[in-house]
Amino acid sequence: MSDILMPKATAVWLVDNTSLGFDQIADFCGLHLLEVKGIADGEVARDIRGADPIANGQLTREELTKAETTPTYRMKALVSRHAELLKPTKKAPRYTPVSRRQDRPDAILWFVKNHPEITDAQISKLLGTTKSTIEQVRSRGHWNSANIKPVDPVTLGLIGQIELDAAVKKGADAKRKQAEKLGIPLDDPSLKPAVTVQPAFEEEDDSPYAKKNDLSLEDVFGKGGGKLSEPEEDDDF
């Protein structure tokens, strides 16, 4: 595969501005010979503006001149800085600190119990684990199954809350689309929007002192109404 930036636009420029053969242009741009012939006939890339490979830093003038004088010569492209910047970069695999790796089975079990709509591939990518480990935790065949308990991976510090919410939404959307295709009713609990953050609430207190705004002084201090009694006089004083 050719590393030429905008191969068709480059082929248009070479066809219009050089005397290179179609096979030379096709080899340089990574196109089929018939595509280059179609460009020359005006049938292919009619609305594409030509891109000068010399100005783009992908070809030298000496290389082009040598190819024009030698029909059997194949031009060698230069490594373009722009082409390198536009190449998609592969995301590095997630690294989990050694101190946190023992917590991954707990997080896997949490996903299995609370979010069955998330696939094993998503769990593997989120936690940096393998599909075989996920299957062992699911089937209770893990060597430490007796001590594995479901724990939120955000609480464990394995992933962030935003990342978890995005994964849950993606899994729910995919399952909802699959359900629509198969005719499964959308009232399935697993198809409902997932809530990964529990709302904060206070436990109700039934003690009489909890409703302090509704209590009067009479309720607290008795029928005296909370009046302070005057100190008795001391005869000796």
Summarize the structure.
With 237 residues, this protein is mainly alpha-helical.
Please explain how this structure is put together.
By secondary structure, the protein is mostly helical. It has 2 domains: 7-86, no CATH class; 98-191, no CATH class. Helices cover 44% and strands 0% of the residues. It has helices at residues 7-17, 22-29, 33-41, 61-69, 81-86, 98-101, 104-114, 120-127, 131-138, 153-156, 161-182, 217-221. Helix 1 (7-17) packs antiparallel against helix 2, helix 2 packs across helix 3 and helix 7 (104-114) crosses helix 9 (131-138). 20% of the residues are buried.
Q: Note the run of SSEs as H and E.
A: HHHHHHHHHHHH
Rg from alpha-carbon coordinates: 36 Å
> How far is the first residue's CA from the last residue's CA?
111 Å
Mean pLDDT: 77
Low-pLDDT ranges = 197-203
Reported for the largest beta sheet, the result is: none
Helix count equals: 12
- As a percent range, the share of helical residues equals 40-55%
Number of domains: 2
Q: Helices, strands, pairings?
A:
Layout (H helix, E strand, L loop, with lengths): L6 H11 L4 H8 L3 H9 L19 H9 L11 H6 L11 H4 L2 H11 L5 H8 L3 H8 L14 H4 L4 H22 L34 H5 L16
Helix pairs in contact: 1-2, 2-3, 7-9
